[in-house]
Amino acid sequence: MTSRDKHDRMANAIRFLSMDAVEKANSGHPGLPMGAADIATVLFTRFMKHDPKNPHWADRDRFVLSAGHGSMLLYSLLYLTGYEDITLDQIKNFRQIGYRTAGHPEFGHAAGIETTTGPLGQGIANAVGMALAERILNARYGDALVDHYTYALAGDGCLMEGISQEAIALAGHLKLNKLIVLWDDNDITIDGAVSLSDSTDQRARFAASHWNTLAVDGHDPEAIAAAIEAARRSDRPTMIACKTTIGFGAPTKAGTSKVHGSALGAEEIAGARKALGWDFPPFEIPSDILDAWRVSGLNACKKRKEWEARLAETDAEIRAEFERRMSGDLPANFDAVIAEYKQKLAADKPKVATRKSSEMALEVINGAVPETIGGSADLTGSNNTKTSQTKPIAPGEYAGRYVYYGIREHGMAAAMNGMALHGGIIPYGGTFMTFSDYARPAMRLASLMGIRSIFVMTHDSIGLGEDGPTHQPVEHLAALRAIPNHNVFRPADATEATECWQLALESTKTPSTLALTRQNLPAVRTEYVEENLCAYGAYELATADGEAAVTIFASGSEVEIALAARAQLQAHGHPTRVVSVPCFELFEKQSDTYKAALIGNAPVKIAIEAAIRMGWDRFIGLDGIFIGMHGFGASGTIEQLYPHFGITAEATVKAAEARLSN
Amino acid sequence: MTSRDKHDRMANAIRFLSMDAVEKANSGHPGLPMGAADIATVLFTRFMKHDPKNPHWADRDRFVLSAGHGSMLLYSLLYLTGYEDITLDQIKNFRQIGYRTAGHPEFGHAAGIETTTGPLGQGIANAVGMALAERILNARYGDALVDHYTYALAGDGCLMEGISQEAIALAGHLKLNKLIVLWDDNDITIDGAVSLSDSTDQRARFAASHWNTLAVDGHDPEAIAAAIEAARRSDRPTMIACKTTIGFGAPTKAGTSKVHGSALGAEEIAGARKALGWDFPPFEIPSDILDAWRVSGLNACKKRKEWEARLAETDAEIRAEFERRMSGDLPANFDAVIAEYKQKLAADKPKVATRKSSEMALEVINGAVPETIGGSADLTGSNNTKTSQTKPIAPGEYAGRYVYYGIREHGMAAAMNGMALHGGIIPYGGTFMTFSDYARPAMRLASLMGIRSIFVMTHDSIGLGEDGPTHQPVEHLAALRAIPNHNVFRPADATEATECWQLALESTKTPSTLALTRQNLPAVRTEYVEENLCAYGAYELATADGEAAVTIFASGSEVEIALAARAQLQAHGHPTRVVSVPCFELFEKQSDTYKAALIGNAPVKIAIEAAIRMGWDRFIGLDGIFIGMHGFGASGTIEQLYPHFGITAEATVKAAEARLSN
Questions:
Q1: Where are the residues marked Important for catalytic activity as a site (chains A, B) (predicted)?
Q2: Which pTM was predicted?
Q3: Which of A138, A584, B192, B257 is 20 to 30 A away from residue A654, measured at CA?
């Protein structure tokens, strides 16, 4: 058997596993795995530094299947190279509930799935984050501990999505030379030929962002290998355009959109078996081919052992710190540092915007937690995301801790996800809350994957003032709270901001959004309490002077209004409690007893939030009084806007008293 | 006064109006208007075909300030050229509540504001839609009635946003040669130099998408004029890189990020007055300069009159149709066509997916309403957006009615907004509902602007099956319902789908989203009713057999489950009503009497929707039973998934009976 024969048979193993799994499921995408099998075979048999038996090895190469619909390509590779999570039984149960082999690759389902892909363009942007993480950690720990490549396989869909431009431009700017994108250039999309909707010269486009670009026949293993070799030596990120035939081997459907997203049918598969000379029944891989794949899975075993030896030889303190960072654990003194800072806040009672409170907390956190990497989508001074410790990361210079992401909210969020997935880094990044919409698809994936990406969303209401309704979030708090497994924090003052940051850092399996004000707020937490009260999601901030006639629930900037309303109501003889609600999601996790007691039985329940009502009925009931927004905002000063929209202590008191006198 | 002196003084009028207005507001963005004043002066005095006294003239050139933060540039131009909506008083009250001169340009605030901009990248994509609309209408009505340019002024922020890539690639592909983008190439973003975050060769990038590109000194009026002249003759869209100094004229802050987004201060403005030789007090424009501007505002008056003459000479039927289309009114027979089709449906009772119902309704609608332009973000066969009438639009060929938008949800939605804003077209476009997140920023702007963009979102729940949680919307219905002025329709069968389409087309001031299933659904509306019942937002679909013990509220695919549960509950002696809830937003607009009666007093209230609970408390109260999703979905068959997540008639009956027996 020549080396080319062997390659072909190994690639065909991917093709038939994919065809057969899709056929059995009667659902899925055979076209990409068949078309990209040669690329994947070259990459995994000749280049990938990974160890299927030690799949979490920190210095492994990362492989991202950005075109996630081709999930059977990845599952085939993981099975063939010997990852224990992906057995033949898993492949036979492709796309069935309870199996690891979901329709699209799901992070957490199996070792070797480096990220959840499927929504197009996310994977390539994750890969940018991973490649950046690698360079950042390399700058700290050197080639001995961190020196790996990040490969992404992307299709036309990935490259048409706008997020890809953000990712490409950022990677080119930062000269992430260990990032290699393999473009499955097959001229086909779901609707038909790419030429129906696109004429872009992709190589020219990548080159415009200073990428190294190459083009090869994606079915020529030597050409692919030579290109990857060249890419690995480049001082810039590389895009290799691999011209392929989608559904390679399917006798009548190859090269058409018919092979993209559905089972081929028995006849077509039989034809493919004939065309590719594959005489084996479904799911059977001949032992010599399986052996060849399994042997290739051992390629990097020696490298892993050498790496472990180097790690063992590393200075104990540095090694411990490296291992701690990669584990995701916070420094041992983290809680103590926060406690000390909270004591200082209780004494100082700063009257600042929560975006400033956040910056102050970050100054403490970034001093204690060296693995945070900050950034902003070109709103550094407004998002207050930069602290004294976070020097800039620049092209070729990765020792810093701050990324100027540019005006690229979506690319930022997806790159943050990539950094979090890589490990060793806790990424946070800022923009205006209204632009959370731009980042939302990546924020959703952070939630679905259960990773620690922290989104800093300032200018969180009409309180931002004159920029007007395009910039004033109204529905965004509700829309973010709607995402499962996503903690939305809206702190009311500097102490709450600190507690929310503590919770965000401690939530290793849940991403967080911090909603922060532009405007100054008084301290509402004036006594030091060691316990993190925000961990309850909602808690009684001010008790009623007697049996409560009114309970006011509020978050963030509106807690100040709630306290002012309470003072007026109590002066009028109406005992009033105030409940601060920094995080709906954590409140829902409390005991029923806690929740019932906190909501209480005051005859009048009011919620105040400078946003829409959606979600607040949970606290105040359908007959509760909501003081907030009922539509879009307006351009004006904050002094004009709050009264204009009736979000004032006076309006609250008036509404409460009208209800009490009923 | 030389012609250059005159130009300079006219441009300086923009600069000082902008500086002075921002200074008075103590808020705003002087840098762009000062930097781009020369570009704008050349464009508006030598090229723009518009008539300030007839600002809605259908064949005017469109000018889009994509860099919307530079709103004072636009307000200055509108005031100076004589638009009545923007008076000097408006400019003096820049960014104040109750004035037309909002922080960012708001469509509807004043004639001459062609679109709402501010969220970066949207404007350039709107402009692509406008330019496409122009070509589409030109293909129908010829040069005599439709023959204008679309100009967009974009900054670095617009070009860094991913949406710009989608827009650029689409425009280049479609050869929209009457689109001219002026790039305010000032090397500055908020965080500092562009070089902090970007190194893209923008001309090369546009060229990669087959644009014509030019570069000029953005302060040289003759060079700018020559470039615009050349652009107007191009057979491709043109990007003119105009190298400018941000804050041109500010003595110490020009060319820095300090001049971008805040008032310059009295001293700096005094220095600018000196540097630019402007001896006039704030808001005073010398009469010769104002006269020169006002005269330029009359430049196209003759062209407008000629156009009106051509319109008057046009065949009466064609003219009436053109005028009807541009007015936004539907054809007179529209309701009759729908009524006839509903009768057919009542007879046929088709059991099809609502995505198919939608296609069937569109087949009727597209036959009756020639101004619809369909499309999909590369999911034509899945979204069922193409009908027999909608032939493809292709590069240079605009007589069709269907746009292959490519895998560009965000660009599609923003281009649709541009088409709706242009007038004469009703755009609809499809993708999977989970990818509404990608399009969301543009969907929000459609809502804020109050325009008729119609978003077709298929695969609206776990019902899509094996593609898994990345593709299964769970929070999206709630998140879309959260957007103000956005009608989210979720029809339960073919009749409801038709009624929802009717409502979407009739809602000229509110965009719509149609949430549609992948899976087949039975007809739940089996009798012909002339009235559009979906117009109530929610209505009683099945009465209880006796005094209702249970009311079940459901939408879309879950109405079938509600009806099955009703049958079982009634068989067990529990009279049960079913309320179909196709549109929350329209329900809220009904009278309190209607709403109270519809919700009713059944002791047990249940809502069923294969999505999260958020929003349903409005119908069932906090103690109501919710049958739906509590987190992300899973990859599996629909037959596995509904029982797995407990969304079945049996689970509904069990929950109801447990409550009834309490």
A1: 29, 260
A2: 0.98
A3: A584
